[in-house]
Amino acid sequence: MSDSDTGAAGRSQGETAQLSAIELNVNDQVRRLEVDPRTSLLDALREHLRLSGTKKGCDHGQCGACTVLINGRRVNSCLTLAVMHEDDEIVTIEGLGDPDDLHPMQRAFVERDGFQCGYCTPGQICSAVGMLAEVEAGWPSHATTDVTSPRIALTDAEIRERMSGNICRCAAYPNIVAAIRGIAVGDPE
Fold this sequence. Notes:
The structure is a single chain. The protein is built from seven helices and five strands, in the order H-E-E-H-E-E-E-H-H-H-H-H. It has helices at 3-12, 41-48, 93-96, 104-111, 121-136, 156-162, 173-184, and strands spanning 20-26, 29-35, 67-70, 73-76, 89-91. It has a five-stranded mixed β-sheet, with helices on both faces. Helix 4 packs across helix 7. The longest helix is centred in the C-terminal third of the chain and has 16 residues, at 121-136. The chain is globular, with a radius of gyration of 19 Å.
């Protein structure tokens, strides 16, 4: 075994990486942390900042339970490192609204029963908020029928395609689509 192999083996058997001091702007609050540079944003939010709304589902970017908004765009927080986001604005489900003042999308999910067990709901809501911003910006999806139109028709198929990265094992999809459409068209009920 070479010296470099021995060094790598030693690190993997108990040595810890040097911690990185970072500042994250989460929900309009600057938070200072010391984290292993390999810490995912998801683990920084949940384990270091105790923001438990962002859920750990698959930890591979396939379920969307960990979706947060970074600079207004939806991101699977399990697939990005916390140290990469020092100058970014991070919004979690806790930053969208609170029980006394719900975000319109949160209210729509409650009113239209867009959840069952609720585990995926924070990621679904953050993704829906980011998705509507993408539609407003005119970004087409695979389901967009007329990519030349300045305004995207937000059909059920369009919503389903755009939300396909968020899985709901309870299959509350019809109510999730209804909640999103309600907000998109400005229908409070």
